[in-house]
Structure formats: structure tokens, C-alpha cells
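HUMAN: Ready with one sample?

ASSISTANT:
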Amino acid sequence: MRTLLATMVMLMMLFSQVQAEDMGKYFKDTKEMVRQGKYKEALERFIWFHDHALEHEPAMYGVRLSYALDSWKALGEVYPPAKKAFLETRDRKTHQLKKGEGDSSLFHDVASLNRTLQEEGKTVELFKILDKENPTLAKKSWNVAKDYVIDAKCFDLARKYLGNLVREFTSVKAMYDRNVTLYDDPRIGGKDFKAYNENNFVEESLRLIQVAVALGDKEAAKEIQKQALMVANDNRIHNAVKTDKKENAKQDNSGVNANQLKKHVLSKNHLPDGFSFVQGVEKNNREAAKEASLIIDRPDDWLKRYESWGRISGYSVAFMKQNNTSIEIISSEVEEYRTFKGATSGLLMAMKIGESKSLLEKALKSFGIQLETIETKKAPFRGDNGIFVFAKGTLIKAGSTIPSEIVQIIWIKDIYVYAVSWVVMGVSSIFDSDVVKLAQLQNQL
């Protein structure tokens, strides 16, 4: 399976087609020598390329640890001295690391050599040694070792380096989003790259879910599953977390017909051109409590509130539009309560949270997101009962300098609380009037 690090290697390799013509030609000529049967000369060039290519062209980093190693190994299958040299290179570098020499780039070399030989287990064993004898280097090498350690099911070791699994998922999502912006780049994009990016996102998400389940953190597993499904409606993700029969029974007894709630949210036909359906999710009280507890209090506290307010259930739908410069997400939500008074209580709590910047900052920080601004004010739109909240804010995701803008309107109509949100990540902006129009449309449903 591909890793996040492999994604970066792949991109560097593709860019190198333009940036490293000299070393690219050297490598191409070496492969031609193999085709011509000049094995001895080709081996000498493969060894030189592995040892010195980066001195001449750093952009060949990806080629050096992927195609070049594959070609060198292929030569070894027809020319034994090449195989011997390959193994000696791997063993020499492994020995250096065990002696406390070298850095994370040397560990990456060894991991790539082992991968080419299909001996990934040796990378895991080497990392275990570094973990005990050279923890500083182990920490610096974790990004390379991570997938090998997890695939080997060394979950206790993974726990030591992974930290917050949900926050780890935000890095997976961030890499996916960056790759999406490259779809239209003729040097990188295309159907193959898109298919690779989407499958890699699913596999990386599944890997984190697997770790969470193995460590007994089912809450994190479900949260990662939920966020991953917002991006990729893939059966592998759907089936990644098993729900026990008791929990299913509680969910099935919610007494709410999701199809009825769907009539209260926006559809693709209500949105501007270019938006595609991502996912629709029913939110019973238990699921809503888990989501709310990410901001404040425990799930049990929220369950008690929902019961006292008479909340029955809710439904949320999301749509996305993306291009070279931005990603936009529109969500439309509804919550059903038994009484107007209960719905008012739910809305007032949402207003209280929205006005507390410290609460939102703390919650977003756990996901690697910085809250830049938040403003809650009177909206230019009213629901039938005249109670509403208009919120607007800017966020910055970890690893990015581009702010994301969010506009949300929440209002009450009879026993329902409605919400429309519009988020833009990238070079674009949201007009308040456009969000108001969506809210007006939903209010008429």
C-alpha cells in the first residue's frame, strides 16, 4: 500500500521530469545499457546514481528511491553481481544505523531498499532497534517507518509515536486535498493520478481506523470513519468499524424516518453549478452527542440535554466543489424536536457555543486547525419564528498559509432547527447573500 511519504516521493519524481533533465537522461541511458546487455557498465552507473545523483540534482530524490532501485533489482535478476551489490548496499547502510551513524534520510534509503526486496519486516526490526537505542533518530524516522510498523501490527509501538489519531487523520486529509489541486496539472494530473489519490486516501484512512480499533479507541475509529466517508463514500470505509447489536438496537429505536428528514434539507438542484453530492447522514441523539462533545462536555452530558429538550433526531447532507485554486463545501442540516421550546433550547446552546471563541479554538486545535476570527451576529434572514443565528469565521489548517472562510446560518421553524453552512478553502470567497439565499430555499421546503 502507498503511504503519505510515497505520495510526496511520487510528486517529486514527476516534477523531476521537468527539473532534472541531466540526471534523468543519465538514468534513461543506464536502462538502455541494460537492454543492450551491457550489464557491468549499467551496474556501475546504478551504483553511482544511488550514491551521487542528489549531489547533482536534489529533485531526483523520488526517482532514486523508486524507479532506480526497481531497475537495479531487475538487473540483479539477470546479472548476479548486481544482486550482490544491491544486498551489500542495504546491509552496509543498515549496519551504519545500528552503530548510531546516519540520519533519517539514511533510514529512508534502507526502508526503500527493503521495500524493493519485499523485505519490509527488516525495516520494522531496524526501527525497533532505533526505538530502544537511538530514540531521537527513531522519532525523526517515524514518518518513513509508520506504515511498515502499522502493517506489521506493532500497535503498541505505533501508539508511542502516533499521538492523537483523529489529528493524524487531518494530515491524511490535507495531503489528499493538496493532491486534488494537481488533477488538472498536465505533468501530474489525469485519471491515473486521481484514481491513485482517491485509493491512497481510503487506504490511509483504513490504516488509522485499524490502529484505533486495535488500541481499543472505538470513538476515534468512528470519528475517522465518519470524516473519511465525507470525502470517499467507499464500502471499505463503511465496513471498517463494526457496530455491536446493542448499539444498532438503540439507533434503530430512534423512531425517526430518515426519509422524512431528508425532505427538510437542500438537494443538489438547489445549489450553484459545480457542486457534487458527498454524503447524507442521519444523526440520532447518540451520534449528535459524540459530535457535540468534541467542542464541550462529555457525550453523556449531551445525551441528557437532548433528552430534556426532546430532541428526536437529525439529518445532514454535504456537497463539494473543487478546482485548481479552492475547495468549497456546502452543508444543509435539520434537527427535529418534540416541541418548539425544546428546539429553542437547542438553538440557544448553539448560539452560546458560537459566541465562545475559546471553546471553538480549543476544539479546532485538536484537529490541527487554527481559528483566526469568529463573529456571531443578527442575520439578514429570519425563520418563521424569528429566532436565528448568523456566524462567520476564518480558519487556517495545519501546514497551510491560506485561510478558510466559513459562513453559517441557523434558525427555527416550528419544531425544527435548520442550518446552512458554506466553507471555502483556498483562493475564493463567500458572499453572505448567497448563504442567505440557500437558507431561504431550505426554509421553504
The longest strand covers residues 311-322.
